[in-house]
Amino acid sequence: MFFLRLFCFLIFFISENAIAQNNKKPFSKSEDINFTSDNLQVNDSTNVMTATGNVVITSDARKITADKVEYNQTTDKAIAIGNVLLTEKDGSIYESDKVVLTNEFKSIVASPLYAKLADKSYITSPELRRNDNGESFFNEGVYSACECNVKDGETPIWRIESKQIKHDPLTKTVYLTHPVMKIFSMPVYYLPYLSFPDWTIKRRSGFLTPKYGYSNQNRFHIKVPYYYAPENDPTWDMTFTTHQNGKTGHADQLNLRKKYETTSVETNIFKGNLDTNKSEGDNVFGVNLFATSKLRNGWDMTLEGKYADQETFMRRYAFDSDSTYKSFINLEKVNQKSISNIEIYNIQNLDGTKSNNEPTLAPSISHHVFNNNQKYNYDIKLKAHSIYNDEGYDIKRWSGLGEINKKIYLNDIILEGDFNVGLDLYSIQGRPSTDENTNRYIDRFSSGFSIAASKQYDFANDNVGIIFEPKLQFSSVFSTDRTDEVPNRDSSEFRLDQANLFLTNQYQGRDNIQSNDRLNAGLTTLVMTENYGDINFFVGQSQKISGTQNNINSINQGRQSHIISSIDWNPSTFFNFSWFSLYNHHNFKSETSDFKLNGSINEWSYSANHKSVDGGFVSNNTHREELKLGVSKSFSSWSTSYNQTYDLGNNKEDLIEESLALAYNTGAQYMFGNCLTILLEYKTSGNVADRDLLAEDSIYLTFNFRNIGDFAYQPKIREFLKD
């Protein structure tokens, strides 16, 4: 605004005709300022010059436009009238009907004012006053992060009304005096004072918006975060959050982030003091470390370390919801013809409902070399790994596998050949069934080959097209029979399906190898319809010719495998269906199945998923059955969802999870993201409990305001009714 004073120089250096012709000639004393208008008049008696019609003044700092500008040289006062727009360098736009500029145009009075800020939030005020230092005071100001057309009477979803809003450009801070938060024009809460960084700040040290809540486990609680960002070092920052809880005690969280040239590190440290199942007032802590780095010679590193010294501490304070922590270091190098990987990991089980027999510190090294060309393909896989404390065993395994495969096209017939050879070396220490102190060293050689033939048959008329593709494969695998001596870890949950039916070794792991001759057959059928979509069918089976089965599934020990069948049908958005099943070939009883149904009707979406696995297909010989049901709908800016999960295994019907959610999200209404999200959620954990964390129902209410923060209310229903 200071540059309006320079209007006077136009009298001496630029003629009225030149201005009227919109010549953007710079001022003599300020080469970076340009001025244009349709007309310019000067009153010598009053020493007032008047510019009218598309008045535009630009500089490197800002731009001002108006219908009319009057400048009095005597009083050094300029008045911009009519559709006044002042665009700041940061992108903020100030709109007003009238703007008065004095004191070399450093002081501004605008009435009324609408400010559209650089981050798409806005401030409105009956009057803006800006002093010589650049401080802006918005009397009876209104602030909101919702982008809407307030000038045309549109009401934002939420706003903060304040007696005064102050913006300090030196500290880059917005201060609000006696702010009142309103949602849907209804007062929600009052604060005597509120401040936050202005729209030009991406990172700034200071207290962040507190978070308030209530739950029957923690009672009333407040989280107060403090953010530290050093001005002279943008590569790191820190956030310290203190948690005050009315019942379970005090907890703190420290978050550290650091960026190097090729490395990023983030560390979270958690500390608390609470009543646990061990004693009263235990000091508990947890840590989470995550890092990524690009090393030399094309290696990438990913590291994550997680630990909690009390099993329910992290979940109780909602730091995270994980019941199992995996800490690992992973190194990987990917080339056009090779993949190398090194991983060391450790498992910590925090779920008291599960067995605490998890492997620890298990290093794994693998190198995969491959080549794909028109003549043939080859793969060479080398892998070494060790597992400690795995069900009482310490296991080391070194494996090597080489494989060559080739396709031959004979008219309409496709021939596929595959040959592989492998060597596995084991060192097993622990407790075998006969002697707990026995150390065993096992070597196993394996080789295999397969040949397959397939052909497509096409049939079509005006409305229907059908493609049949039968495939027949002979497979032979030889292996030193050491299966009973090798603990099965990587093939324990084997399930025969369309993906592994035609593999030479149907077990993709190395702990279990089939030593036999097999005949595998499958038929793929694709039905293409004009009105009912495409339907894909598959049926297949494996027939043992000779040799041992070595199948971990007791129900699948015969010469003939279960019959594989699957259907995929996607006729429209209203209805999508998929089904997989394994049938016993003796009685055609389905002994494992996976059924999925989903779609949408009139903006309602639904889903159903039923899974059933007979005990013979899993390592613990336990029948598993689960049913998941869900329905959701989105309308305008609202959305709702309802979900249930049932455990149907072993002739029971237990509701293990249930949730109901209602959300209001303005992100679809406004162009520049969410300004408010309201989430009302009901959850139940069914009968699932874990030590000092009890089975519970809960209601969770969350308000999230863009640029401000969130508020959560979470009473637990069962306990709430007892209070």
Task: Outline the structure in words.
With 723 residues, the chain is an all-beta fold. Among the domains are: 1-88 and 100-110, lipopolysaccharide transport protein A fold (Sandwich); 119-202, no CATH class; 213-390, no CATH class; 623-688 and 693-723. Helix content is 3%, strand content 59%. It contains four helices and 46 strands. The strands form two sheets. The protein has a 29-stranded antiparallel sheet that branches. It has a 17-stranded antiparallel sheet that branches. A hairpin with a 4-residue loop joins β13 (164-168) and β14. It is elongated.
How would you concisely characterize the structure shown here?
With 723 residues, the protein is mainly beta.
- The computed structural class is mainly beta
What portion of residues is helical?
A: under 10%
Main pleated-sheet profile: 29 strands, antiparallel
- In total, how many beta strands? 46
The count of helical stretches stands at: 4
End-to-end CA span: 62 Å
Tell the overall outline.
Answer: elongated
Compute the CA-based radius of gyration: 36 Å
Beta-strand portion reads: over 45%
Task: Detail the poorly predicted runs.
Answer: 1-31, 550-556, 667-673, 713-723
Oligomer classification: single chain
Output mean pLDDT.
78
